[in-house]
Amino acid sequence: MSADRGALSAESIQALFEQGCIRRPGGLDLARLQPCSLDLTLSAEAYRLPASILPLPKEPIRTLIDEFARRSIDLSSPQTLLRGKTYLIRLEESLHLPSTLGAYTNSKSSIGRLDVQTRTLCDGHPRFDKISRGYQGELFLEVAPRSFDVVLQQGHSLNQAIFYGRRRVLGTEELEALHRRDPLVLFPDGTPVPTEALWVDDGVMLSVDLSGDIVGWVARATTEEVSLLAGAQNPALEFFEPLTRPKDGRMLLRRGHFYILCTREFIRIPPTHAVEMLPYETTAGEFRAHYAGFFDPGFGWSPQGEGKGTPAVLEVRPYDDDLILRHGQPICKMAFEDLASIPTLPYGASGLRSHYQDQRGPRLSRYFQ
Length: 369
Description:
Elements: H1 10-18, E1 22-23, E2 33-34, E3 37-40, E4 42-49, H2 61-68, E5 71-74, E6 79-81, E7 86-96, E8 102-107, H3 109-112, E9 116-122, E10 130-131, E11 136-145, E12 149-152, E13 159-164, H4 172-181, E14 185-186, E15 204-207, E16 214-219, E17 225-227, H5 236-239, E18 240-244, E19 250-253, E20 259-267, E21 273-277, E22 287-288, E23 294-295, E24 310-318, E25 323-326, E26 330-338
């Protein structure tokens, strides 16, 4: 793999800190490093906005703050972010990237499963979650709780950054060849899906599982707050209602409701690649299938390659209409991309915080009991 092609490993991200390309008060916290991504951290500086907004080309984010911020919020102590409202929070990390490096960001899986949307903004770039090569400046995070009020404070991590020289997503023929060498998609019993049975279109399509005793969860209407504070006890049944297996193999998803589901297939990502689950695949239907779209190398693979795969958990929200899902219906697309180098510790390795390596079924966020 070429050093200028693909996502950077944890070791390369650590080198960016040492070179001053990524800066953070107190320096790098090694606990924030994943095999191929960096957990970004909230600062104490936050603002309430009237709505979501992007900067114009060459426009600083602080110009938007001066013009649109309703009030400032101090996150040095715990604060409640209200559902249905939009907030802008400065991140602790700032970037001073060379012209050869860029980045993109995603919500962390534990945050997406709370139905909290996060999107990164940077100066002069009118696109969410995209950081152009050579960017120099602060980073801000737009945070929008959708289903619940959320208690958090400075130091929490809601999203992650992936750094790259040049992204390269594998095409159909490359995916099929990789699957033959090192199976990417498996049945629940651990046997590989035959190559001819894969639904591949510059990414692997996975389908929804409605066969288990509990096939998913739907967010409840509640006045309780979800706390992200250390030691908090959030009872799952206060916030989510379990969905049992439909007798006829079909499930009605209501417009505007938030659901946790999972894939029928198990995915297995070798340490040579990372995966982005595309949040909106128009060919699969009018709904968002995932907020937290990045899967580190090693997910479902295990350190020695003995892993039998792990189902992907989906955060689903129908858009304009109610939606009928049937067991085995394609629901999301997994795009595999090259890495610039293989990380020393893949996801699931001892010593890493790999919360979802062994998840089975539609698992809720780790913040719930």
